[in-house]
Design goal:
The protein has no helices and eight strands. With 90 residues, it is mostly beta strands. The model has no long low-confidence stretch (mean pLDDT 94).
Length: 90
């Protein structure tokens, strides 16, 4: 779980993600809150085998009550969910 504290209307962050596989992979990034979270690299994250890649994310201030929980889905190339990261934006 991550917490992002917004000091302005927009905020950019990088979050690392490790490919624990023996093969290079391209992960597809999705979210349940596209109004709050945008992907800087068109929602694709290429990561070499046994290495880390960095998701470049742009957050917008939540409209409702100043905080929101965002799910960032890390999916395989076939769009099967591999992991879900919970991000609290406030």
């Amino acid at each position: 779980r991550y917490t992002i504290r917004m000091n302005s209307l927009h905020c950019s962050k990088k979050i690392s993600y490790e490919n624990r596989s023996e093969q290079d992979k391209v992960f597809r990034l999705r979210t349940n809150r596209p109004d709050i979270l945008e992907f800087r690299h068109k929602g694709l994250l290429p990561v070499p085998a046994n290495k880390r890649g960095y998701m470049k994310l742009k957050f917008c201030k939540p409209p409702e009550s100043g905080r929101a929980e965002v799910c960032l889905y890390v999916n395989t190339e076939d769009d099967q969910n591999e992991e879900c990261l919970r991000i609290l934006v406030e």
